[in-house]
Structures are given as structure tokens and as C-alpha cells.
Design brief:
It is built from 13 helices and 16 strands. The chain has helices spanning 3-17, 24-27, 60-68, 81-90, 94-97, 109-115, 177-191, 224-245, 267-273, 295-298, 325-333, 349-352, 422-434, and strands at 35-41, 70-72, 75-76, 119-125, 146-150, 159-163, 166-171, 197-202, 252-258, 302-305, 314-316, 320-321, 363-368, 371-377, 380-383, 403-406. Strand 14 (371-377) and strand 15 form a beta hairpin. It starts with a helix and ends in a 20-residue tail after the last helix.
């Protein structure tokens, strides 16, 4: 079954189910379905918010969001940006959803929400169409009714902006992007306040070439990077205020998270780009950063608020991931999860609503490009021997042997316990063997390699 056939079938199924008692979609009035707002920052480290231990970043709005909702301490994205985005959008590890090369055949949560009557908007960084305008693979072709943002990154200090399908020019004002994206997000909220919606707001900051406006520049304790995060916090507050002012607070599930760990392993190149300024974040107590499968590369901040549903002032250490969004939203919005492909995400509704403190996720796989580096189950994390380092900026390559860590007592991955717990190693290796590989591995380049002879 192809993507179009599946989406057509579930639309018919949704209409059929709407006439049956006992079905979630049938028993909920249309306006009682929760709205979804995903705020997705870039290259923000685990230690880069006050509520996650930062002493140099003031983040009163996000700290407040954590008090109003649940803060997750063991939340996982992917090692780098494109793969992290395809995983979030599809509920599938990048080895299936293909990261920067996410194909038209993938089914996104936006497409699925549309089958349940939602209006969908994407603002900001897309980064799953090889950073180009490719028919079938841009936001408007992947389930989003409205798009305003850039299809790629800002590595050269500029972004090409699109208003839906139309290119509207190049923007070199990196300091102003966070405000512009937030303004567009607020416009989307105002235009769609009377119907269920998804807003996916994917910020360019704090990736590669960063900057802050005069109101924030030089005002933090931690240099330029901290200035940028404090400005992100402020504009996130503006978005939250708009949700309140529009009367949407009680019926909107807000998620704040980021795409991968900080680029703290690229300090000298980033320093040169920024005239000596500190332009990278902190992994806090975690090992390494972006591009790695150490905790610092993939474990990131995540805060979820839904008043009256998600418990307030709660801290959860359940294993949770961006791949879980799609099946979780299915339960909350009333759409069908695709059955024609492997879905790596699990329904975490019970975890979010405080009905199950452990969550539905038994284990989580650590993948980098097309290689399986390890697995976590409970407090245990096993990394395999001879893992390939795909990103030259990652300096910490480990021992080249199997490594077992107790993340409950050793969050910094300092003490390899393979010799003390051989039985745990064997159990974890069985999980490694059980991973279901796709029939064909994807091209993992940001821009596809040209085939010989062409």
C-alpha cells in the first residue's frame, strides 16, 4: 500500500468510525480535540535552560512552562538535525525515514492530523528535503496547509525564505529570525483559533551562525549563545501569551524540545565565525555533544504542558522520544497510525496524562547514519564496539570496546560496567539483534551524492 492509498483509506475510515459509539473521535466534539504546538529549537544542549541546571542562562518563561507541566529528564532526539526532524515527523528512526532525504512516501503526523480534521502549519526550518525545493517533499506536499520558513540551514549566515511554495528572498539577519518565526506562529494561531490545529515551530537558532537582537545581545552571563537562548525564551513566552489571550490554553498541548545536543565539540570553528564569541551550548552533566551517540548528543530538554491533563510541576525520568509524538497524537486526536510500515514510536498518552509513570517505551536505539551504535533499556545503556565516528568534530570516540553504563547512577557515562555485569550485556545484545533493519539503507548525505557516469 502506498502513502496516498493509505491516507485515502484512513480518511474513509475516520468518516465510518465517526458514526460508531465508543470510538474516541466519535465521542469527542470537534472543538474538544486538543491543539498541538511543537516548539523545536536547534542545537540546544541539555544544560541550556535554568530548569535543567544552567547558571548562565535566564529562562523564566520555559522554567515557568516546566512548573505548569512536566519536565522530562530522559528524553531523546537524534544526533543531528535532518535525521531528528524526519524521526519527529514520521515516528520512525532515520534509518527508515531517511533524515535529510525524507522521501515523499513517508507519512507525516501533519498528514495524519489532517485526516482527523486538523489545520496544520509549519514555521521555520524544514531540513528534510535535502535543503532544496523538491516537488513532493516540501512542507505543503507533506501535510502542512501553511508554511513559512527555510528549507535548509543557515551555515553560510543566510537563509532562503519561503511563503508556502513561493521563494520570497534571502534573509541575512540571523538576529531577527526568532522574532519573525514567532510572529508568523502567532498569526497562524489567530487565524485558526476556532478549529483544531497543529503548529510546528522549528527555530533556526541556535544553529551554526547565531545572533541576538540589541535587546538581548551582551545581556546574559554566558556570552552570545546564552543571549540567543534568552531571546528564544522571551519569544516562546510571547507565543504562550498568545495562546492564553486567544482562550486556547486549556485545550492546547504544548511541547518544547530541540533537535540534538549542543555543538560544544566545534568550539574553535564556531569561535572564528563569531569573532571570538561563545557560540555553543552545554551538555550539562552529559558526555560529548552533537553528532555523537553519547548522552550529550541525543538526550535533550523536553517540557510538555496541557492544563488539567498533563500533571503540573512534575519531573519524569521515563524514557520518551520525538518518535513517540506521532502515535501519541493518534490517541489524542483520533487518527489511525499507519499499519503498512514499521513505526518505531510508541503511544505515550498514559505517561503524559500521569496515569503511568514508567511510560510505554521499553527501550530506545541509538543510531548514527546507517549504523546502530547501541541501545538503552531501563537504567542500562550498551554501546557496541568499533562504532564509526561519522562527524569529525566529535572528539570522544570511546574505548572501541563494548561499553555498559548505569545511567541512573552514572549520567556522565564514566564507568564502563561490562565486566561487572556480563548478563546485562547479553540481554542488551539480544535487543540489538532484534532491531528490524529496512530492506535498503538510505543515502545519509545532506545533499545526495551524484552517481558515477552522470
Amino acid at each position: 500500500m502506498n502513502r496516498r492509498t493509505f491516507l485515502k483509506d484512513i480518511c474513509v475510515g475516520a468518516v465510518t468510525l465517526s458514526g460508531l459509539p465508543g470510538i474516541y473521535a466519535a465521542t469527542k466534539p470537534r472543538n474538544s480535540k486538543p491543539n498541538f504546538v511543537i516548539i523545536f529549537t536547534d542545537d540546544q544542549g541539555y544544560g541550556d535552560l535554568g530548569c535543567y541546571g544552567s547558571e548562565t542562562i535566564r529562562s523564566p518563561r520555559l522554567d515557568g512552562l516546566a512548573k505548569e507541566g512536566t519536565r522530562f529528564t530522559d528524553f531523546y532526539a537524534q544526533p543531528v538535525c535532518g535525521p531528528s526532524r524526519s524521526a519527529l515527523l514520521t515516528g520512525r528512526y532515520p534509518v527508515r525515514s531517511q533524515g535529510w532525504s525524507m522521501p515523499e512516501s513517508e507519512i507525516t503526523l501533519a498528514e495524519l492530523l489532517k485526516t482527523a480534521g486538523y489545520t496544520t502549519g509549519c514555521i521555520g526550518k524544514w531540513d528534510v528535503s535535502n535543503r532544496r525545493d523538491i516537488k513532493g517533499r516540501i512542507p505543503n506536499d507533506q501535510g502542512f496547509d501553511y508554511y513559512w520558513g527555510t528549507l535548509g540551514a543557515n551555515d553560510g549566515g543566510a537563509v532562503r525564505l519561503y511563503d508556502n511554495r513561493e521563494s520570497i528572498g534571502v534573509d541575512r539577519d540571523m538576529a531577527g529570525l526568532t522574532k519573525r518565526y514567532t510572529d508568523k506562529g502567532i498569526e497562524f494561531l489567530k487565524a485558526n483559533k476556532d478549529k483544531p490545529f497543529l503548529l510546528y515551530l522549528a527555530h533556526t537558532m541556535a544553529h551554526s551562525v547565531i545572533d541576538a537582537t540589541p535587546r538581548f545581545k551582551g545581556k546574559s552571563k554566558g556570552g552570545l549563545y546564552s543571549d540567543v537562548i534568552e531571546e528564544l525564551d522571551y519569544h516562546t513566552g510571547r507565543l504562550l501569551d498568545a495562546i492564553d489571550e486567544l482562550g486556547l490554553r486549556d485545550n492546547t498541548l504544548v511541547i518544547f524540545t530541540t533537535d540534538n545536543g549542543p555543538w560544544n565539540n566545534m568550539q574553535e570553528p564556531l569561535r572564528k565565525k563569531h569573532k571570538g564569541a561563545v557560540a555553543w551550548g552545554s551538555s550539562g552533566p552529559l558526555r560529548e555533544g552533537k553528532g555523537s551517540t553519547w548522552e550529550g548528543g541525543v538526550r535533550v530538554p523536553c517540557i510538555v504542558r496541557w492544563p488539567g491533563h498533563v500533571p503540573a510541576a512534575r519531573v519524569s525520568n521515563a524514557i520518551f522520544s520525538t518518535v513517540d509524538f506521532m502515535p501519541t497524537f493518534a490517541k489524542l486526536a483520533g487518527y489511525m497510525v499507519p499499519t503498512d510500515r514499521i513505526i518505531d514510536g510508541v503511544d505515550q498518552t498514559e505517561l503524559l496524562l500521569g496515569k503511568n509513570e514508567q511510560g510505554a517505551r521499553d527501550h530506545f536505539y541509538y543510531l548514527c547514519r546507517n549504523e546502530l551504535h547501541g541501545v538503552r533499556k531501563g537504567k542500562w545503556k550498551l554501546l557496541l564496539e568499533d562504532r564509526k565516528n561519522y562527524y569529525g568534530y566529535v572528539k570522544d570516540t570511546g574505548s572501541k570496546e563494548k561499553e555498559l553504563y548505569n545511567l541512573e547512577s552514572d549520567i556522565g557515562e564514566k564507568h564502563n560496567l561490562t565486566k561487572q555485569h556480563p548478563e546485562i550485556v547479553e540481554e542488551m545484545l539480544e535487543l540489538i539483534k532484534a532491531f528490524q533493519w529496512p530492506a535498503k539503507l538510505p543515502d545519509t548525505a545532506i545533499v545526495p551524492r551524484k552517481k558515477k557516469g552522470r
